[in-house]
Design brief:
heterodimer, A: alpha/beta, D-Maltodextrin-Binding Protein, domain 2, 2 domains, six-stranded mixed β-sheet, B: alpha+beta, four-stranded mixed β-sheet, 16 strands
Chain lengths: 220, 386
């Protein structure tokens, strides 16, 4: 279907962006100068494709922009997709970048002493209250979640909670704060996501981008 | 102490429609209903509330979680405030109109209330306009329902209308043919709902290759049909596929301005559908304008049915603003006959109740585009504040 409106691809600031940029380059998308500058005030960037713009937003907001159709495509970790479970987001492609895992961690001394089978209630600091609640509920444990936006690793030492649920890449941040990983929650990698209505109403354009990213991701 | 409520505050998801939106909504509903009625779909008007047993029977079961319920002090039974009108119309067809000749064509328009809005439709009270075609099982009935919905939307000037066809029984048939357990089939469903190819490959077991290709087949109709035709499907699924191809062929001939896409694994909102189903999208629409499809109607003896519901609020958001009616201020000294003549010529008259010095200024204050001054129609300059 012909349409004059540009497609918007939402990309996450921070952790994943460094790995996305080479992927874009291989897909033949060259952003206008300024895109790679972390401090740039500009938020929307033209690309070498007249029909495609990039926006750079917080990783959690990528999902929100795409879910509401403000962006048509996006790159988001499945941690974020699991947390929001937006019905309007399709995740047709695992880009295989930004790999890490979501895990439960606790102070080293608790981890050896505790028997998780006896829990009925835990207090957990996390950026992912929904995933955390579901994870513990599935084994009959009620999780009281304290939503934090960063520095999760501080919470147990300062008595805010006993456990945290957070992304673990190498485990060095956990170790530095006297925490150990107790159990995995989910494997995480970045996905190419698309807005449902965009895929339905502009199937050719959106599908051709999915295909292009599929070729690039598989070749990597 | 409870903070006093601001008098304008409404409960979450409810709103007032003001001028000119309320009139625009009424006109849009009337225009869509006129199309349905012109095709022989006779209007029914079920009540706002009814016993929950009847509201949640058959296809209505899906709405149980969405429905406000209350105790009827008269019958001492639970009654529900309708969250969807389709089950009410199916009930009417199966009971009071069970002896009416088939195929039975019914239409309806009304407001429904939901316990919770969705992400894209936070409104809890929404308007529905719909039609049901009951007691007809053929491809012709499928095509009629889709073409009729398209005609009603196009009559309102919807731009870039497209219909996305799906086959809700397809995936269950494939899961059954590959002997997937209920839990596995559910995991497959969840992966397909998010079009998550990576997850699908993990959970679908022996059905993974076929379902993966099915997932990739979605898209514009000609491409999708070709992709589907190339798949080796179990017998039940192949029959559905043949029917889909027939519907697309007939629909393309009947409604050439409608773009058709196919998504063979779409399931959300179609849990109770038993055959070809569809959603309408338009350029600039965040969500579907309406949806419908084949289901089994009736309690006791069941009969095949198809139909659709259009979401008035979503439709209104994408249609062009209606032309502003020409409002003319008629001062009190004009005769009643003069006002009548203006209205018969298509004017909206706004009568002055008291004599004013500056008629033009008074007309502007009352949001009129024209004024009747000294017996002649004077256009008022736009913009300049009177």
């Amino acid at each position: 279907m012909p349409s004059n409106e540009k497609l918007v691809l939402a990309l996450p600031k921070g952790r994943i962006l460094g790995e996305v940029v080479p992927l874009l380059r291989r897909a033949g998308i060259v952003a206008e100068p300024g895109f790679a500058e972390e401090e740039a005030r500009q938020l929307r960037f033209a690309t070498s494709h007249a029909g495609l713009d990039l926006i750079r937003v917080r990783s959690f907001d990528v999902a929100t922009f795409v879910a509401f159709g403000a962006a048509h495509l996006g790159v988001a970790g499945n941690d974020i997709l699991m947390e929001f479970d937006y019905p309007e987001i399709y995740a047709p492609l695992d880009l295989g970048i930004g790999r890490c895992r979501l895990a439960v961690a606790a102070p080293a001394e608790d981890a050896t002493r505790e028997d998780p089978a006896r829990w009925s209630h835990v207090r957990v600091a996390t950026k992912y209250p929904d995933i955390t609640r579901r994870h513990f509920a599935a084994r009959g444990v009620q999780a009281e979640c304290i939503k934090l936006n960063g520095a999760m690793e501080l919470a147990p030492a300062l008595g805010l909670c006993r456990y945290i649920v957070d992304l673990v890449q190498t485990g060095s941040t956990l170790r530095a704060n006297g925490l150990v990983e107790i159990e995995p929650v989910a494997e995480v990698s970045a996905r190419l996501i698309v807005n449902r209505a965009a895929l339905k109403t502009r199937p050719e354009e959106v599908s051709s981008w999915i295909e292009r990213f599929r070729e690039v991701a598989n070749a990597a | 102490m409870i903070e006093p409520l601001h008098p304008a505050l409404l409960p979450l998801g409810l709103r007032d429609l003001l001028p000119p939106d309320a009139a625009a909504e009424a006109r849009a509903v009337a225009a869509m209903m006129a199309v349905l009625e012109s095709h022989g779909y006779q209007r029914v008007k079920p009540p706002l509330v009814e016993f929950e047993e009847s509201l949640f029977s058959g296809a209505g079961a899906a709405m149980a979680k969405e429905t406000f319920r209350l105790m009827d002090p008269v019958s001492q039974r639970m009654i529900g405030l309708r969250a969807d009108m389709t089950p009410q119309v199916a009930r009417i067809a199966a009971t009071r109109l069970r002896k009416a000749p088939r195929p039975l064509r019914l239409s309806y328009a009304g407001q429904v209330l939901r316990v919770k809005g969705s992400q894209l439709r936070p409104e809890r009270q929404v308007g529905q306009v719909g039609a049901e075609l009951i007691g007809a099982d053929g491809v012709a009935a499928d095509v009629e329902a889709i073409a009729l919905a398209a005609e009603a939307l196009l009559a309102l000037g919807v731009v870039g209308l497209s219909v996305d066809l799906t086959l809700p029984p397809l995936v269950p048939a494939i899961c059954a043919a590959h002997a997937l357990t209920a839990a596995e089939a559910e995991a497959v469903r969840a992966a397909l709902d998010h079009k998550d190819a990576a997850r699908l490959a993990e959970v679908a077991g022996p059905a993974a290759p076929l379902l993966g290709r099915l997932l990739a087949a979605a898209g514009a109709a000609p491409r999708a049909l070709a992709a589907l035709a190339a798949l080796d499907m179990p017998e039940a699924a192949a029959a559905e596929r043949a029917r889909l191809a027939a519907v697309v062929r007939l629909l393309a001939a009947r409604a050439p301005e409608l773009s058709i896409t196919i998504d063979p694994v779409e399931n959300r909102g179609f849990e109770y559908h038993s055959g070809i189903s569809f959603s309408f999208f338009a350029k600039g629409a965040r969500a579907e304008l309406g949806r419908g499809g084949r289901y089994i109607a009736g309690n006791g003896h069941s009969e095949p049915a198809t139909g659709f519901t259009l979401y008035t609020d979503t439709v209104l958001a994408v249609i062009p603003d209606p032309e502003q009616a020409r409002r003319i201020f008629v001062p009190p000294d004009a005769s009643a006959a003069e006002g009548q003549r203006l209205r018969s010529e298509g004017w909206v008259t706004v009568a002055g109740l008291e004599t004013v010095a500056d008629i033009a200024a008074e007309a502007k204050r009352l949001d009129c585009s024209h004024a009747l001054i000294g017996g002649s129609i004077i256009a008022l300059a736009a913009g300049a504040e009177g």
